[in-house]
C-alpha cells in the first residue's frame, strides 16, 4: 500500500477516534527537544516547542516526536505542572496547615486526604473497591511488604515461591532475598516456571498450571506478572489465580505493565494481592509513588487490639503509623491498630508531590471515560500497528518478527519486535534520528507501545516509515541483505 494512502487511512481513523482530543492533554516532546541535550531555559515547556532549537534542523523543530514508549515511561500530562504548582502554592502559603485545611478554589485534597483521593481514582482502573487499594511506596518495596505479610513458609510443608524464569530482575531479587530473610535457600525454595514450548519465552497457561501442580504440596506463594515486561504477554490472571487457590497457594501479581493498560477486575477475579508502579501507563512521572491491592478478605481487622495479644485480629505485617486507624493515628499511643483494608498496610506519610502528580494523570483517565474505553481504542491501535508491520516489504519483514502473542486478548498495548542478530544498535540509532522513541531490551528486542491516551493511528504510520528506514540502515550496517532470525 502506498504510504500516502496509508497516512490518509490513519488520519481518517484518528478523526473517528472519540478519544483523539486527549492527546492535547499531554506534552509530546518535539523532535528538536528529543534531539537536544540542553535543558530548555523556559519553564513553560508545554507552550514552547522552539526555545531550544537553535542548533537543530528548523523544519523538524516543532514537529512532535513519535513517542511509543509508554510501557517504560508515560508522557507528562500538561495538567501535572498546574497541579504541582497548586500544591507548591499550598505549601508556600499554608505551611503545615496544608495537611488539614481545605482551600476554597483548590482542586486538591488536603494532604491528609491525598492518599484516599488517589485510591478513589485508581480503584476503578484496577477493578477494586477503594478500601482494597493503597497508593504507597514503590513497586519492589510493595512486593516485599506483601511478601512480608503473606509469605509464611513452613519448612516441613509449604515453603516454596514460584515465579517465571524471565521475571523482571527486581522480582527475582525480591523473591531470593525474602527466602534468605526466612533462613531458606533459593536453591531449594525457589521454583522458576520455564517456557519449554516457546523459543521467545512466551508462557502458556499450561506451563504455569503444570508447574503449580508439580509443586503444589510444597508451594506457599506465587509471584507472576499481569503482563510480562519483555514479551508484552497478558497472562490469564483469573484462571491462574483460581488454580493457585485450588492448591491453597497465595498469589501476588506484579502489575507494572498491566495497570492503566488493560482493564483489571482484581476483586472479582479473587486476586489475593497485587502491586504496581505508576510511571508507565499511569503517567505519574519517573519513580512516582506505587500502589498495592489487598483483597478485602486478607485485610480485615476483626478484633480490638489488646495489650496481651497485640497482633490478634488482623493479618500480620510490617507496620508504620500511616497504617494505623486514622481516628487514632495522631493519638500517639504505641499500640498499632490498623485500619481495615489496604491502607492498613501503609507505613509512612506519603509524598504529596508524588500523589499530586499521579492524581493529575488519573484525572485524564476520568476524562477518557475509564479504562474500558481506553482498552477499546488500544485494541484498535495495536492491531493497526501489527497490520502495518505485516504489510511491510518482504526484505524488511525478513529482519524481524513479533514475539508478543498475536491474540489481542493475550496482550496489552505493547508489541515486542525481535530483530535479526546485530540490528539493534543501527535500528535504534536510525529510529531516534527520525524522531521515534521506543525502547530496547538487549540483545535484540524493541518494545513499541502505542498508548491510547496520547498515541494516534498516525503515530503508527510514522513508526512504520521510520522502522523501514531503520531496517535499511541495519542492512547497510551489516553489509549484507540480512536473513531472518
Ligand atoms: C515488571 C516490573 N517489575 C518491577 C519493576 C521495578 O519497579 P520499581 O523500580 O518501581 O520497584 C519494574 C520496573 O520497570 C517492572 O517493569
Automatic annotation (TrEMBL):
It is an enzyme of class 3 (hydrolase). One of its GO terms (biological process) is anthranilate metabolic process. Pathway: Amino-acid degradation; L-kynurenine degradation; L-alanine and anthranilate from L-kynurenine: step 1/1; Cofactor biosynthesis; NAD(+) biosynthesis; quinolinate from L-kynurenine: step 2/3. Residues 1-74 are annotated as: Disordered. InterPro entries: Aminotrans_V_dom, Kynureninase, PyrdxlP-dep_Trfase, PyrdxlP-dep_Trfase_major, PyrdxlP-dep_Trfase_small. It comes from Rhypophila decipiens. Homodimer. The gene is BNA5. Its cofactor is pyridoxal 5'-phosphate. Its EC number is 3.7.1.3. GO terms for cellular component: cytoplasm. This is Kynureninase. The modification N6-(pyridoxal phosphate)lysine is found at residue 280. Residues 117-296 form the Aminotransferase class V domain. Belongs to the kynureninase family. It comes from the Eukaryota. NCBIfam families: kynureninase.
Amino acid at each position: 500500500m502506498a504510504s500516502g494512502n496509508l497516512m490518509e487511512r490513519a488520519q481518517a481513523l484518528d478523526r473517528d477516534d472519540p478519544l483523539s482530543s486527549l492527546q492535547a492533554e499531554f506534552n509530546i516532546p518535539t523532535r528538536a527537544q528529543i534531539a537536544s541535550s540542553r535543558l530548555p531555559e523556559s519553564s513553560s515547556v508545554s507552550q514552547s516547542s522552539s526555545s531550544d532549537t537553535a542548533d537543530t534542523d528548523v523544519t523538524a523543530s516543532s514537529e512532535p516526536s513519535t513517542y511509543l514508549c509508554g510501557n517504560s515511561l508515560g508522557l507528562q500530562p500538561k495538567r501535572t505542572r498546574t497541579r504541582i504548582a497548586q500544591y507548591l502554592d499550598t505549601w508556600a502559603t499554608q505551611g503545615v496547615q496544608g495537611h488539614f485545611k481545605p482551600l476554597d478554589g483548590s482542586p486538591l485534597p488536603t494532604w491528609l486526604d491525598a492518599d484516599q483521593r488517589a485510591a478513589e481514582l485508581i480503584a476503578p482502573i484496577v477493578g477494586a473497591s477503594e478500601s482494597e487499594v493503597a497508593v504507597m511506596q514503590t513497586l519492589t518495596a510493595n512486593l516485599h511488604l506483601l511478601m512480608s505479610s503473606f509469605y509464611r513458609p513452613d519448612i516441613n510443608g509449604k515453603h516454596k515461591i514460584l515465579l517465571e524464569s524471565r521475571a523482571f530482575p527486581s522480582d527475582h531479587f525480591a523473591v531470593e532475598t525474602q527466602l534468605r530473610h526466612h533462613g531458606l535457600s533459593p536453591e531449594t525454595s525457589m521454583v522458576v516456571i520455564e517456557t519449554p514450548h516457546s523459543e521467545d519465552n512466551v508462557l502458556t497457561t499450561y506451563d504455569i498450571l503444570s508447574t503449580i501442580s508439580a509443586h503444589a504440596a510444597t508451594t506457599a506463594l506465587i509471584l507472576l506478572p499481569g503482563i510480562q515486561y519483555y514479551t508484552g504477554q497478558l497472562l490469564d490472571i483469573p484462571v491462574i489465580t483460581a488454580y493457585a487457590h485450588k492448591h491453597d497457594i497465595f498469589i501476588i501479581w506484579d502489575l507494572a505493565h498491566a495497570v492503566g493498560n488493560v482493564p483489571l477486575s482484581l476483586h472479582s477475579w479473587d486476586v489475593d494481592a497485587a502491586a504496581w508502579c505508576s510511571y508507565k501507563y499511569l503517567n505519574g512521572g519517573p519513580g512516582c509513588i506505587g500502589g498495592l491491592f489487598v483483597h478485602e478478605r486478607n485485610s480485615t481487622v476483626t478484633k480490638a487490639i489488646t495489650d496481651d495479644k497485640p497482633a490478634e485480629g488482623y493479618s500480620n505485617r510490617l507496620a508504620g503509623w500511616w497504617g494505623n486507624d486514622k481516628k487514632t493515628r495522631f493519638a500517639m499511643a504505641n499500640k498499632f491498630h490498623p485500619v481495615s483494608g489496604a491502607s492498613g498496610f501503609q507505613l509512612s506519610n506519603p509524598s504529596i508531590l508524588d500523589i499530586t502528580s499521579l492524581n493529575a494523570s488519573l484525572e485524564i483517565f476520568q476524562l477518557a471515560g475509564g479504562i474500558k474505553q481506553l482498552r477499546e481504542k488500544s485494541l484498535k491501535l495495536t492491531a493497526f500497528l501489527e497490520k502495518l508491520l505485516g504489510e511491510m516489504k518482504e526484505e524488511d519483514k525478513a529482519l524481524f518478527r513479533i514475539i508478543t502473542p498475536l491474540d489481542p486478548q493475550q496482550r496489552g498495548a505493547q508489541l515486542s519486535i525481535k530483530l535479526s542478530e546485530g540490528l539493534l544498535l543501527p535500528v535504534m540509532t536510525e529510529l531516534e534520528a527520525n524522531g521515534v522513541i521506543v525502547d530496547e531490551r538487549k540483545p535484540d528486542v524493541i518494545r513499541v507501545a502505542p498508548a491510547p491516551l496520547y498515541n494516534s493511528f498516525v503515530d503508527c504510520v510514522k513508526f512504520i516509515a521510520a522502522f523501514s528506514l531503520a531496517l535499511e540502515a541495519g542492512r547497510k550496517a551489516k553489509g549484507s541483505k540480512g536473513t531472518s532470525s
